[in-house]
Each structure stands twice: as structure tokens, then as C-alpha cells.
Write a structure and sequence with these properties.
Layout: E1 17-22, E2 30-36, E3 41-46, H1 55-70, E4 92-93, E5 99-104, E6 109-111, H2 118-134, H3 153-166, H4 176-184, H5 191-197, E7 204-206, E8 215-218, E9 224-227, E10 234-236, H6 238-249, H7 267-281, H8 287-291, H9 293-314, H10 326-343, H11 345-355
Length: 356
Amino acid sequence: MQEIPKQAFQFVTDGTPVYHMRYGSGHINDTYFVLDITGRAYILQRINQNVFKKPDELMENVRAVTLFVGKQVAESRKALGLVPTKAGDDWLVDDSGDYWRMYYYISDSLCLQQAEHPSDFRESGVAFGNFQRQLADFPAETLNETIVKFHDTPNRYMNFHKVLKADPCGRAALAAKEIEFALAREGYAATLMNLLEKGDLPLRVTHNDTKLNNVLFDRDSRKAVCVVDLDTVMPGLSVNDFGDSIRFGASTGAEDEMDLSKVNFSLPLFEAYTDGFLESCGKSLTQCEIQHLRDGAKMMTLECGLRFLTDFIDGDNYFGAKREGHNLDRCRTQFKLVAEMEKYWDDMQNIIMKEV
């Protein structure tokens, strides 16, 4: 058995760490399950600085958000909690310059990679709705913008035009239909950013990776416990967090499905998530936010498709590719969902307003 990482001994655990194992299915940070001699469990992580270039700013955000949410929950397992270091800090920088953090382990919980029933997707809506409600009064502007212009869709179009003009791999001709689809919706791309700039949409604390597998569920009841993976928490729009969940979870096909007949936008799944989300945070959202939830869904799906398309033309430098045309396939699934959302546009709004 490998030795327990020495960094684990520099945190204030209830007892001496005696056991550890690799944990989870994430591919970015190094994550370990740690057990101390009293039987208490923890999650130890080394932050990947190749991905997160400003770990101090990332951890400042995590500390601020976990403290704010932690004060609002009656049960400690309803929120992530950082374990302090023996030096009194909320994270550790070791002798090699690596950044480490430790969370209290949330017991009797499980993580789902995909919804096994619509109720699972609804519960993820409850979790991310709670996250919005709990942080509704947090001054979002005080958080660090750890990924600049992350959901600035007009800026994504600027990058797209630069790559399209250069066409470094001669691939643009292979994506003529997708390019036409993207350009036809460029005028729409500024809708949410314009509302933010006018002050109609408020700046919120956003999670920015609102997938099902970033929610912990109670092992017995299958009810949502809390949201995890706060590495991308920063200022943003609530409608985008809502929209990214819909983009990923209300599709009947995989994100890289090659057979587009298997990829459809599911109104029942959209309704399930919307019901859970608005039940949890509807009263803390503004009327403008509620009115533009469906725009969040369409915008996040359009933006994601555009990013896949840009990367395909640019040579698969960002997302990578496991097969020829992989990013073009990913683009096509997203654009198929956009087209179907447009088809069900009125139905989406009717569902939203029914749940308010």
C-alpha cells in the first residue's frame, strides 16, 4: 500500500490519518479519500495548476462561498466545509509549490454520473436552486473571475471569427452547415450580456459546471444533499447555470453522439429540472431572470456548440479529440439541441411560468 500523502498530516484532523485511497472519477485534480484513527473521513485534493493558473484566487472564492453557505445550513453535511491547516490556513502550499486542500467527507452520500430516473434530474435542480438561493445575498462582484470572459458569448464569437479566418487546418469546408448555423444566430449571442450591462440581469455567484455529477445525493432517500466541485465558482448569471444543466441533462443523447436521430431535447426532463430549480430558488430570482431562463438554456447550448466548432477548425487544441471529427460531432449535437429548443420555445416558457 502506498504511503499516505505527507500533506494530509498538515491539516487539523480529529486524529492521525491512517488510511487513504484514490477517490472519484475526476481527471483534473488528484483526489484522495483519507480516514483518521477516530474513523472520521476527509477528501484531500491537490489542485491541478496546469488547468487552474491562479490557485490562490480559486481558493479565495471557495473559502468565501463555503463559509457563507455553511452559516445557513442546519446540518453540516448540507454544505462543503474546508478543514484548516495546522498553521491556521484554509489551504496548503507545500515545499514543491503544490496547492492542497482538505474537505470534511460528506457521509452516506452518492454521486451519479447520469440520471437513473427523472427524479434524479429534478433533485439536481433542487441542489443548484438551493445554491442560488443560499448565495442570493452574497456580493458576487467580490469574487475573483478565475476564467476571464468564460460565458461571454459575443467574445466566443470573436474567437470563432479569428479561427475561421485563419482556418489553420483547412477544415472549414468540412463544417459549412455548422458554420452557417452559428453565423445565423450571432445576433442573438449578445442577448444576455446586454441585459447584464444594462443592469436588468443581476450579477450572481455561479457554479459554472452544473452537471448532475457535481451534486451529492443522500444514499437512502436519493434527495439532494449539496453541490460540490466549486473550482469554477465566480461571478456570472444565474440563467447560465440553469442553462448549462439543461444543455447537458435534458438531452436524450451523449454529448458526442454521432447518430443525431438519438439526440433530442426532452421537454419532460426540462420540466423536471425546472420544477426542482424554481421550487428552491424561484423567490430569490428577479422577474427578468425568470423570463430569461430559457435563453440561458439556448445560450449555453449555442455557446458550447460554437466552442466545439471553433476547436474543430483550429485543430482540436482545447477539448482534444479521440477520433477524427470528434469535436464536429460534439458541435452537431449541441446545434441539434438549439434547433429543437427553438422549436419548443413557447412550450419551454409555459413550463417555466407554470412553476413560478
